[in-house]
Amino acid sequence: MPDTDVIVEMRHITKRFPGIVANDDISLQIRQGEIFAFAGENGAGKSTLMSILFGMYQPDEGEILIRGRQVDISSPNEAVALGISMVHQHFKLVHNYTVAENIVLGIEPATRLLGLIPYVNMRPVNKVIRELSERYGLEVDPSAVIEDLPVSTQQRVEILKMLYREAEILIFDEPTAMLTPQEITYLLDIIRKLRDDGKTIILITHKLEEIKQVADRCAILNHGKLIATMDVATSSTRDMASKMVGREVIFEIDKELARPGEVVLDVQGLTIENEHHVDVTQDVSFKIHAGEIFAIAGVAGSGQVELADAIAGLSAVKTGKILLEDCDITHTLVRPRTLKGISYIPEDRQDVGLILDFLLEDNLASKAYFRAPFSRRSILQRNAFDSYADDLIRRYDIRCSSGALTMTRSMSGGNQQKAIVAREVEQDAQLMIFVQPTRGLDIGAILSIRRRMIEERDKGRAILLVSLELDEIMAVADTIGVMFAGRMIKIAPADQMTLDEVGEYMMGVKQS
Amino acid sequence: MSGRDPRWDVGPDALKKISEPGGKCDDPVAPPSQDPPNPAPSAPDDGAVQVQLNWFLRAFGNERWQFITIPLLSILVSLIAISIIVGVMGSNPINVFITFLQGAGWIMKPVYAGGFGMLSDLSNTLAAFTPMLFAALAVTIAFRGGLFNIGISGQMLISGFLASVIVGYSGLSSFVAKPLVLLIGIVTGAAIGALIGFLKYRFNINEVVASIMLNYILQYAVSYFINTRYLDQISRQSRVVSPASTLVLSGIYNSKTHQLMVSNSLPSVLKLGDIQFLVPICFVLAIVLAIALQFFLKKTRLGYEIKAVGANRRGAHYSGIRVKRTILVTMMLSGALAGLAGVSYYLGYFNSIQPDTLTSLGFDSIATALLGAAHPIGNIASSFLITTLDTGGTYMQSMMGVRQEIAQLVTGLILLFSACSAFFRWRIAISRQKAEMRAYEAAEHDVDTDLVASSQGGDAA
C-alpha cells in the first residue's frame, strides 16, 4: 500500500482519565477516500480517540500525522483548518436561525452595502448550499428554520456545514442513534456518496450491521485497546461481535439458584412513543416473578430506559398493559405505583433521581415525606427526617460533609448514587427497577450493590435490572431479556445464554 | 460525544469534590477532615487540602448565610453608588440618608407641622409597608415554586376594585366590612392566580406571558367600569370608599394629655397637641403571614412539594409529586397574597383607585422579593427598606433641595443592585472555586492534568 494513500495516521496514542485508560497505545492508518468505522461497546474508547483527532482532547502519548505531516491538534479550530470536521451526536445548531444562517455561522460572507454598511449577503450562500445539497442528495432547504426541521434533517444540516467548510475528513459520532430505520438507510446512502466523491469518512458506531453495510474497514476497540483492524468485506459480523464484546473479567458473586414465585410484574405488548411520536419500544412483553432478577440487555437507546420509565409511571404508554400483582397500573400516577410497591433507580440520577438543591435528608425521604413518620397532619416531622437520614447514611456508607444536612449538590456522584440506592431499597417494594445502578461507582460499591440486588431477590422481591454492562448482567441475572431497536428479541434463563450470544443478540446479529 | 463509560464518572465527581466542597472548606462547623477520602481508586484524595480564603470570600461565600449576606452586599454597594452620585451633586450623603429616615418616621424630624409627629410618619410608612410585604411574599412563593408571577399589579387592581365595589360603597358596618374586604381580596387574587396556573396546567402557556396579558385585560376592564360608573368627577379617581371598609384605622394621640383615640375616621376638629396617625390593621397580619409562609415552606408537606417542583420538575415528578397540580396551587397562593396586597393598598394606604394605571408597587415587589433573597423573613427586611425609601423620599428632597428624580433614583439603584444579587452570588462562587483550585494545585500539582481530563470527561458523560 503506497504511503500517499494514508490521510490520517495515529501512532501509539494513549489517553488516560482518572481510573481508566481510555486509549491504550493505539496505532492505525486511515486511507484517503474510504469509510473507516470504529466499533466497540460503550466506553471502549472510540469517542475519545476521535475527540483527540478533532482536537478536543490532547493525547498523553503518541502522535498524529495528517497527510503524512505530523500535526499538533490543540483545538477543534485547528482540526477544521486541517480539513477535519465532526458531526456530534447532539447537534450544535441555533434553533431559530435558518439552515443557511447556521451553516455560515462564524464565517459569514460579509460585504459592504454601498461600500459602507457591513451586512451579510445570504443570496450566494443559499445558492452554494442548494448546490451542495443537490449534489449529495441531502434535500435540505437552505431557508428553512432549524426548529421546524425533524432530527434527521438537522443532522443533514450538520453534514452540509462540514461540506460548506470544505472538510475532507468527516467524522460521524453515532450518527444513527436517533434515526428511524428508513432514515438510517438514507443517511448511509449519503455517506456512500460522500465517499465516492473522495471524502474520507470516519464512522463511530456500535451497530455492526451498519458497518457491514457501508464501511470499507473497521477498527474494533475494547477497553481502550485496539483489538483488530479488519476489512469489512472479508469478515463476518459474528467475528466482529465477539471481538467487540471480548472477554471481560466478571466479578464473581456467590449466588444461589433463584426460586421464582408468583408473577409480580406482567408487561403485555407495551408500545411507548417519545415526545417526537416515534415508537421507542414496540410490543414488548415479559413477566418477572417474585425472587427473580430479570435483566434487560441491549445497546444504549434500544428502548430499555423508556420501558423502565413507563413501568415506574414517569411516561405514558401508547398501547399495551402493565400489571403489578394482577392489578392494572398502566394508567395510574407515579405516587400510587410507589405505594403499591415499585421502587425505581432512574438512569439520570442528577436530573431525575435527586433534587440537587435539597438537603440529603430531604432527598432520602423524597418518596415517603408525605406519610408517617415523616409527615403528621401535613406537617413535616424534621426529627424523623434527621434520624432516618442518619440511619441510611450509616448503613449505606454515604459520605457527606455535613451529614443529613448536606446539600445534595455538593456530594460526589458516587455518593449521590448511593443515596438513591439507599432510598429505593429501603422502600421494601415488591418490584425494584434498577437502571444502571452501578454507573460511576468504585469496585467496592459496585459489588455491594450487586450483592444487595441478590439479597433482595432472595427475600422474594422481583427485580428488573437495566444495564449497558454485559458483565453486570451476566453476574446477577436469573433471566435475560435482550432488547434491540425497541423490541424484546430474546428472553432466556441466564444460564442458557453465553456472554457471546447475548452480545450477538444485542448487536442485532442474531435473531431468534 | 457518546463515550459514556460508566467508570469515567469518577472524573467529574473528583472535580466536583474539589470545586464544590459544600461548606467543607469554609464551614467552621465541619472540620475539613470529617469527610473520608474518596474511595474511588484513582480519584485524587482531597481530604487533606486546607483552603485559606480571604475575608471577603469567608464573609460572603458561605451558602448557608447567603440569604442574609448577599442582600446586605447589594444594599452596601448601592449605598456607595448613591453616596457618590449625591456627593457629585453637592450634598452630604450622610444627611441624605438621615433625612430619608426622618421622612419615614424612624428618626425625629427637627420640626413638625400641626397635628403631625414622628408617629404620623412612622404609621404612614407601616401602612405603605403592608401591601409591599404581601406583594413581595406573593412573588416569593411563586419564585420558590419555580414560577414568575409578574402580574401582581393586575391581581392587586382587580382585588381592590371588587372589594371597593362590593363592600366599599355598601355602607356595611366595619365589623362586617373589614373581614369581608380581606376575604374578597384573598378569593379574587386566588382566582386570578388559579386562572394563570390553569392556563399553564392545561395549555402549557407560560405564566409570565399569561400574567402580563392579564395585567392589561384587568387594567382596561377595571378602568372601564370606574370611568363609566364609579368615577368621582372632581378627583378623576374612583369614588372614595367608606371609612368602615378600609383596612386602616385613624388614630389621634394627644401628646399633652396622653389620650389615645382610635376610630374609623378622623374627627373634624383637632385639639392642641393632637397627633394624627394611621393604624394599618393588616400590618400584623402581613408579618404573621411572612413567618407563617416560612414555616409553610420549611415544615409542611405542600411546602416541600412546592419547593421540589421549583427546584427540579423532573425530579419532583419522579418522586410522585403531581407537578402541574402543584404549579396551579402555587399560583393560587401567590394570587391570594397579591389580592391581600391589593386590598391593603387600595382600601388601606389609599381609599380610591386611579383608572388607567397599574401600581408600580406590583413590579417593585419583584425586586423587593429578590432583595429579600426570596426568603419570607428576608422579605420583611427588604420591604421595610424599600418602603422607607419610598415614604422618606418626599421629605428628603424637600430638605436637601435635590430634585424629586434623585429620590426615585435611590430606590431604583437599590432595586437594581438587588436584582444583581444572582450575579454577586455567581461571582462569589466563581472566585471561591478559583481560590480553592489554586490551593489544591499548590497542594498536589501532579494531579493537575487529571483534573483537566476529568473536567472534559465530565462533558463527555
Task: State the gist of this model.
The complex is a heterodimer of chains A (512) and B (461). By secondary structure, chain A is of the alpha/beta class. Helix content of chain A is 32%, strand content 28%.
Detailed description of the structure:
The complex is a heterodimer of chains A (512) and B (461). With 512 residues, chain A is an alpha/beta fold. Chain A is built from 17 helices and 24 strands. Chain A has 3 domains: 3-245, P-loop containing nucleotide triphosphate hydrolases (Rossmann fold), CATH 3.40.50; 251-341 and 429-512, P-loop containing nucleotide triphosphate hydrolases (Rossmann fold); 350-428, no CATH class. Chain A has a 6-stranded mixed beta sheet with strand order 6-9-10-3-11-12, sandwiched between helices. In chain A, helix 8 (237-245) crosses helix 17. Chain B is globular. The model of chain B is unreliable at 1-49 and 444-461 (pLDDT under 50). Chain B has a 3-stranded antiparallel beta sheet with strand order 2-1-3. In chain B, helix 4 (93-103) crosses helix 14 (376-400) and helix 5 crosses helix 14. Chain B has 17 helices and 3 strands. The chains are: A alpha/beta (512), B mainly alpha (461). Chains A and B meet through strand 1, helix 1, helix 10, helix 11 and strand 20 of A and helix 1, helix 10, helix 11 and helix 17 of B.
Order of adjacent strands in the largest pleated sheet of chain A:
6-9-10-3-11-12
What is the C-level CATH assignment of the largest domain in chain B? Mainly Alpha
Distance from N terminus to C terminus of chain A (CA atoms, Å) equals 42 Å
Secondary-structure-based class of chain B equals mainly alpha
Largest interface: A-B, 74 and 62 residues
Strand arrangement across the biggest beta sheet of chain B: 2-1-3
Shape of chain A, please?
globular
Biggest β-sheet of chain A, characterized?
A: 6 strands, mixed
The name of the CATH topology of the largest domain in chain A is Rossmann fold
Give the terminus-to-terminus CA distance of chain B: 8 Å
Query: Approximately how much beta-strand content do the residues of chain B carry?
Result: under 5%
What is the highest CATH level, the class of the largest domain in chain A?
Alpha Beta
- Per DSSP E runs of 2 or more residues, the count of β-strands of chain B stands at 3
In CATH, what is the homologous superfamily of the largest domain in chain A?
P-loop containing nucleotide triphosphate hydrolases
**How many helix segments of chain B?**
17
